[in-house]
Amino acid sequence: xxxxxxxxxxxxxxxxxxxxxxxxxxxxxxxxxxxxxxxxxxxxxxxxxxxxxxxxxxxxxxxxxxxxxxxxxxxxxxxxxxxxxxxxxxxxxxxxxxxxxxxxxxxxxxxxxxxxxxxxxxxxxxxxxxxxxxxxxxxxxxx
Length: 143
What we know:
Layout: H1 4-12, E1 19-25, H2 29-40, E2 51-54, E3 64-70, H3 78-83, E4 85-86, E5 97-99, H4 102-111, H5 122-128, H6 134-141
Parallel strand pairs: 1-2
Antiparallel strand pairs: 1-3, 3-5, 4-5
């Protein structure tokens, strides 16, 4: 993703009401939790409201699905628009868009200081961004 820092700034703005969640097969939870802790420094509990555990054996659910939900203000970075879609999930009506690009977007966000949930620590995120990329982050944040 070429404009990761601009995208990160855009969704980090509190007006986007960002939610990051994971859907994890029970048998993959420990491995996911280890990877998540390496990226974020945070260890998850199995009863986290932002981790949905799926019993093993359910057809089509074999691993980890990461999703972000956010409110689009009509001026997102083009790169985010290209991979996001209108949110149609009835249980998430407060969000206009969602994206499930775990490897190319969400995992890099974790490494940047984002965490699962609906509250992000902007100080932590900004501290993890190289000074040379803060302008890109700010451009996205102020869109």
